[in-house]
Amino acid sequence: MNIETMNCPTCGAGLKPKVRECDYCGTVLIITSIENLGSLKVDANLLNISIEKWKEKLNTNPLDPEANYAIAMAYMNKNLREAAYKHFLIVVEKIPEFPLGHYNLAILLFDDGNVIINSDDFNLAQKHIEYAAMLGLNEAIGFKWFFSGLKLVNVDSDESISNYKKAIENCPDIAFFNINLGHLYDYGKGNFEEAEKYYKKALELNNKSTAAYINLSYLYIKKNNYIEAEINAVLAIESFKDFLPDFRKAEAYNIYSLSLWNLGKKEEAIKNIKIAIAYDSSIAVYKQNLEVYNKKSGCFIATATMGSYDHPTVMELRHFRDNWILQKSWGERFVKWYYHYGSIVAKFIENSFVLRKISYFLIVSPLFYLARIVKK
Questions:
Q1: What is the rounded CA–CA span in Å between residue 179 and residue 184?
Q2: 295: pLDDT confidence band, cut at 50, 70 and 90?
Q3: How many CB atoms neighbour CB 83 within 10 A?
Q4: What angle do CA 353, 358, 363 make, to 5 degrees?
Q5: Domain spans in the chain, listed from the N-terminal domain onward
Q6: Confidence grade of residue 35 (pLDDT, cut at 50, 70, 90)
Q7: Which residue among 190, 198, 246, 359 sits deepest, i.e. has the most Cβ atoms within 10 Å of its Cβ?
Q8: What is the pLDDT of residues 298-327, one digit of tens each?
């Protein structure tokens, strides 16, 4: 049986081989991102009718590969991934030469990067992607390079970038590839210009990508462009889908609160960091940010200036303190002195937009570059 030539599992329309979406009902047939699922284009009633139809066929023959593939894709279009999983397993067992079975199973396991790298699920996803790539599916070839790049991020960033670019060459219209390449330039290389280019390219491909808006907003925070950070954080929140994980929603509200804080909108910042905590209370940084906003913690100059305990500049200065200043004979005495007087100065800085700007240019920025020089 050649499932690749089957009709659309939802509406029954005829399909061209390897087409990504049904032209008639909008059903996703080749998944490139979990973000693309749950489309409003697909009639929910039509999906339910399709599922019931394939269930009847499975009642007759539970191992029928066509029925298992069709119902798995219907479940995926409803973002019911656990329900789809067991049906994909039957497909790849019964028809191992069918590339779309291996490919879509791999994307389900990968879950837009929410899977832990080198976990059993990730390794299984990589195995099925490589199998589908061997069978010639172009999207699988792209993801093969992408997975390889993911594994190398913390080992060889240059090789990781090379693999990400090969993934984009194979599939230039997959937003997810551009987001990850932008993230590597952003956090791995500190190349904000290249990072911004790839984040924006991702949004050209998918203007509802929550992850792209969040990353772009964080980037603008680091560039002290708080107005653009706020705009992109709002767009991230507006792009939410019902099935978006709570941790991702928390990220969006956290970055929104950071941009508001740096724009001097204290009350709005407090309101939105509380929403972030409500979505994901496990992240200590969100609670620390709330303490900063409420002036409940010893807010020191860098934290008060940047508005966040986990701002990359603050993190760099903490690293400088721990790994250089405190290693000197005078370091511990200096830090104790700073903790006493720095907290007093910080209370004035955090309440004034103008003082935060002055502090950034006269204190924080020079120290940051000194830390970079010493680190090198």
A1: 9
A2: low
A3: 15
A4: 125
A5: 208-297, 299-376
A6: confident
A7: 198
A8: 446 888 888 777 788 888 887 787 678 867
Q: Which residues pair with 21 in a beta bridge?
A: 28
Of the candidate CATH numbers 1.20.120.330, 3.40.50.720, 1.10.1660.10, 1.25.40.10, the domain formed by 208-297 belongs to 1.25.40.10
d(CA 87, CA 89): 5
CA–CA gap between residue 211 and residue 228 (Å, rounded): 16
Q: Show Cβ contacts of residue 122 under 8 Å, excluding neighbours closer than 6 positions.
A: 109, 110, 115, 116, 147
User: What is the four-CA torsion angle of 190, 221, 152, 180, rounded to 10 degrees?
Assistant: -120
State the pLDDT at residue 123.
Answer: 94
CB 127 within 8 A of CB 191: no
pLDDT confidence band for 296 (50 / 70 / 90): very low
In the block, which residue shows the tokens 């396991």?
109
CA distance 361 to 258: 19
Q: Look over the chain and give the mean of its residue pLDDT values, rounded to a whole number.
A: 87
pLDDT at 3: 56
C-alpha span between 219 and 188 (Å, rounded): 13
Phi, psi of 21 (to 5 degrees): -135, 150
Give the tokens for residue 111: 């879950």
Q: How much of the chain, in percent, has pLDDT values that exceed 70?
A: 93
Place of tokens 């030539």: 5
Smallest Cα–Cα separation from 339: which of 297, 293, 309, 288? 297
- Does the model's pTM come out above 0.85? no
Instruction: Give the whole-angstrom CA distance, residue 68 versus residue 1.
Output: 13
- Other Cβ atoms less than 10 A from the Cβ of 334: the count is 13
